[in-house]
Amino acid sequence: MEWFKDSNINFQQVRRPAMMLSALTIAAGILVIILQGGLNYSIDFLGGTAIQLRFEKPVSEGEIRAALTQIDMNDSEVLRIAALGEDPEILIRTKKSEISEASVENIKAAIRTNLPDNPFEVRAIDAVGPKMGSELRTQALLATLIALGGILIYISIRFEFIFALAAVLAIFHDVVITIGLFSILGKEISLAIIAAFLTIVGYSLNDTIVVFDRVRENLKRMRAKGLEEVINTSINQTLSRTIVTGVTTLLALVVLYIFGGSVIRDFTLAIIVGVVIGTYSSIYIASPILIEWGARAEKLQKRKPK
């Protein structure tokens, strides 16, 4: 199915304003992170305690938050984790890595007071220490850097180094913008969000590779044309595939975001943002880098003494 058959859109005509917009967006995200004193890490990285409760009747997250507010635990994270048709289950996550039995009893008492007609049981209490949280942060960063390094090597072998550099910079652009948006929205960075970032890396790379593969083919077929025209032609030739893939992926993600429950909502939001930004970056970040690099190489070639 082709939605944009024989399209001839001059995408690269606005590449510099688009790159400027990306730079300003990244700068805004970094500024927010600095003003907030860093990223808002979840207990996965800072350490904390998770308490899982099962209720006999349906219960909302707001009702549990109201109960926790009464015992000065309003900074706790409350998530509904039961699947459709199962008994209602709530996960309470607090940033205290050590929680006493008395504190657990206080939580139970506060919930019983607010919900006297809804009996519940404590299913599990899990703690993550600060040291383990710090190790998880290091491992998450290492996993991301290894992924980017592997991509750089793979694309350098399959294409050329400049193609690899453009792809990695586009991926970096996508992840940084998503992190910045999460900081602006006050969202926590958890292990699930790190998994979402790695998913974004894969999606963005796939989108960029499709365009680059067509660019490589057209460089052989259109030797008399300039690099900018070759890249514009390549983007137009792959535009239908890009739009169809993006729209179908977004449809599934939006349904998941609406009906998937609060446990995976932030994860889904991160991927939605990543899919949109990844599609944009393959056209207005990765491709322009090739054009600017080609223009610079051509200027240097002309300056060389004959």
Automatic annotation (TrEMBL):
Identify the SUPFAM superfamilies for this entry. Multidrug efflux transporter AcrB transmembrane domain (SSF82866)
UniProt cross-references to InterPro entries, sorted A to Z:
SecD/SecF_arch_bac, SecD/SecF_bac, SecD/SecF_CS, SecD_SecF_C, SecD_SecF_C_bact, SecF_bac, SSD
- Give the GO cellular component terms, alphabetically: plasma membrane
Localisation per UniProt entry: Cell membrane
Residues passing through the membrane, by range: 21-39, 136-155, 162-185, 191-212, 243-264, 270-295
Bilayer topology: Multi-pass membrane protein
A single BP term in Gene Ontology? protein targeting
Disulfide bond recorded as keyword? no
A Gene Ontology molecular function term of the record? protein-transporting ATPase activity
Keyword set, alphabetical order: Cell inner membrane, Cell membrane, Membrane, Protein transport, Translocation, Transmembrane, Transmembrane helix, Transport
- Is-annotated flag, keyword Mitochondrion? no
This protein's major location comes to: membrane
Q: Which Pfam families match?
A: Sec_GG, SecD_SecF_C
Domain (SSD): give its ranges: 157-292
* Summary of the function given for this chain in its UniProt record: Part of the Sec protein translocase complex. Interacts with the SecYEG preprotein conducting channel. SecDF uses the proton motive force (PMF) to complete protein translocation after the ATP-dependent function of SecA.
Q: How does it assemble?
A: Forms a complex with SecD. Part of the essential Sec protein translocation apparatus which comprises SecA, SecYEG and auxiliary proteins SecDF. Other proteins may also be involved. Part of the essential Sec protein translocation apparatus which comprises SecA, SecYEG and auxiliary proteins SecDF-YajC and YidC.
What family does the entry list? In the C-terminal section; belongs to the SecD/SecF family. SecF subfamily.
Would you tell me the protein name for this molecule? Protein-export membrane protein SecF
Which organism is the protein's source?
candidate division LCP-89 bacterium B3_LCP
The gene name reads: secF
